[in-house]
Amino acid sequence: MIDVNVAIVEAFNTSFYYKDRSIQTLVQISMINRYSELHENSFLKFFDTYDFRRSMRVLILVFRIAHCTQYHKDLKKPYGNIYTSSLGQFEFAKLKAILIMQKECFSYEQQILDSGKLVTIGPCKNFGLRYDHLGVIRCTSKAVQLDPFDGMGPILAAPKHPFVLSYIYNLHYHSNCASKNYTLNKIRRELHGPGLKVVISSIIKNCYICKEHRSLYLRFTYPRPKALPTFRTKFLAPYAACGVDLAGPFEVRDKFSKFKVWITLFTCLVTRAVYLVVVKDLKASTFLRALKELCCRHSTPQILLSDNATNFASTNKLLLEISKNLSTLHDGLNISWRFIPVKAPWTGGVYERLIGNLK
After folding, report:
1. Residue 136 falls within a domain, yes or no?
2. Per mean pLDDT, which range of 37-51, 79-93, 269-283 is the poorest?
3. Could you give the dihedral angle defined by the CA atoms of residues 159, 161, 167 and 173, in that order, rounded to the nearest 10 degrees?
4. Which GO terms describe its molecular function (predicted)?
5. Which of 78, 121, 141, 316 has the fewest C-beta atoms under 10 angstroms from its C-beta?
6. Which residues contact 326 (CB under 8 A, 6 or more apart)?
7. By three-state DSSP, how is residue 140 classified?
8. DSSP 3-state assignment of 130?
9. CA-based Rg of the chain, rounded to a whole angstrom?
10. What is the DSSP letter of 235?
11. Is residue 254 within 8 Å of 283, Cβ to Cβ?
């Protein structure tokens, strides 16, 4: 039987390449299992209890107490020059937390790097590990010019460490609970480690805000779309079946003054052709003149489809006035007017989409 721990130490001390794949597998499994063992007794275990920012304030206070105790200073006095002048208190505590995390989880990698050798075994063998000027282990990145740390590469992190878990959730939460890919790309610019993608997926899956957004009772469910009606598919003549809607108001300027206008949009329900008429008000008589212009330019529509304007008071008044003249329309033009359901605005998407393109 091979003692895995002895094999690991020997490999780190001699930088020996194992030719036996079974020994390599045992070494990697032992190193991965050691992560979870260290997390239970981690110095930063309190990051599991509080949120990231509160835990960082606690960590800042811990370093302040340690500093004042060591140099016999008064705790009630302001911070002064306790921390490095090039880093703020928060960044200093964050740097110390990263160093503690790496010391707890990557002690073997530190031994190899301290001896001046490259890490060629374990789950981090392909990361190109190296020290930066602050003593932090970083990974070699291909896109060094795009990294936010002046090309130094992402920091090596253990994804299941309490500090890293809290940091990832804090970034995800303050990014408005962004998607998995956005959070992963954002984290990989700063941190990198084995199993990072799986941990991010787990954090997003367990995020209570994301659970609310994914829940069915908060998601508006559209009814299953039905087959298109006959007047949407049967071609008779241009604008034989016509959808109509109003866009505006738009403020225009002439030589002396400013005034508002609306645009009446007529669209063929079969060919999606569009005809626009500018109107100066929402009166029924004005709309009838726009409809007459459509009839003169193209053809008289047999079917008119529009909303019933319960959402907009001005359009509601317009359609109420038009409804009084429906008998005149039937007698003179033989137009069948159809209104979409009151609380189903998506049924008028055939012209609402064109209104959006117009704007």
Report:
1. yes
2. 79-93
3. 70
4. nucleic acid binding
5. 78
6. 337
7. coil
8. strand
9. 35
10. -
11. no
Q: Based on the domain organization, do 69 and 183 belong to the same domain?
A: yes
Angstrom CA distances, 4 to 11, 21, 106, 158, 220, stand at 10, 13, 17, 21, 55
The count of domains in the chain is 2
Q: What is the DSSP letter of 225?
A: P
351 with 275, same domain: the answer is yes
> Can you name the residues that pair with 264 across neighbouring β-strands?
246, 277
Structure tokens at 279: 């109107």
| 36 and 133 part of one domain | yes
pLDDT 10s digits, 211-259: 877 775 555 555 666 778 788 877 778 888 888 888 878 888 887 888 8
pLDDT-wise least confident of 2-11, 28-37, 91-100, 287-296: 2-11
Return the number of other C-beta atoms located less than 10 Å from residue 243's C-beta: 27
Which one is predicted more confidently, 121 or 49? 121
- Token pair listed for 242: 């016509």
* Tokens (6 digits) for 226: 């039905």
pLDDT digits (tens, 9 = 90+) for 136-191: 888 876 665 555 555 567 888 888 888 888 888 888 888 888 888 888 888 888 88
pLDDT at 54: 81
The encoded tokens of residue 162 equal 């309490």
Q: If you average pLDDT over residues 97-111, what whole number do you get?
A: 83
Q: Are 28 and 11 in contact (CB under 8 A)?
A: no
Which residues lie below 8 Å from residue 24, measured CB to CB, with a gap of 6+?
Answer: 18, 121
Alpha carbons 284 and 275: distance in angstroms, whole number: 19
User: What is the rounded average pLDDT of the residues 309-331?
Assistant: 51
* DSSP per-residue codes, 117-168: ----SSTTTTS--EE-TTS-EE---S-GGGSTTTT--PEE--TTSHHHHHHH
What integer pLDDT is reported at residue 33 of this predicted model?
45
| 177, part of any domain | yes
Helix 89-105 and helix 52-71: axis angle, to 10°?
Answer: 90
- Asked if residue 162 has a cis previous peptide bond (ω within 30° of 0), the answer is no
Q: For residues 287 and 322, is the Cβ–Cβ distance under 8 A?
A: yes
Domain boundary among 159, 189, 216: 216
Q: Which two tokens stand for residue 98?
A: 């990263």
Q: Is the pLDDT of residue 288 over 70?
A: yes
